[in-house]
Automatic annotation (TrEMBL):
Top-level taxon in the UniProt lineage: Bacteria
Protein name: Transporter family protein
Entry-linked Pfam families: EamA (PF00892)
Keyword tags: Membrane, Transmembrane, Transmembrane helix
Amino acid sequence: MSANWVLPALVTLVCWGLWGFIPKLTTQYINPMSAMIYETIGAAIVGLVVLTLVDFRPEVHVKGVCLGITTGIIGLTGALGFLFAVKSGKVAVVAMFTSMSPIITVALGCLVLKEPVTFKEGLGILSAFAAIFFFAS
């Protein structure tokens, strides 16, 4: 198995770790809906950088475009929910609770894409559930 995924995954880990923390600070100064506007501007900046990296010629396929837009809508809706949650909740508890979202991804991968979950991976998932339960209670 190639390890080409490790560096991008590490970047993701750091970015999403910061993404989970910074909204707590942001919502101390502005309301969650205003924060979402500025977060979207930040996302647009990243989008423009990526657009230049593909020479302003992104791939176009109807299903891919529709799924990409759907992903953006779902992601930003989740981000808005996260902003409201950290506004009034402890960032550590909210972050740990919402970090269980990969369970949905794994379930959909099994059901829709027929990707199997090994016994060892299943134990890891159950352990993550237990950790979140104990941490959040």
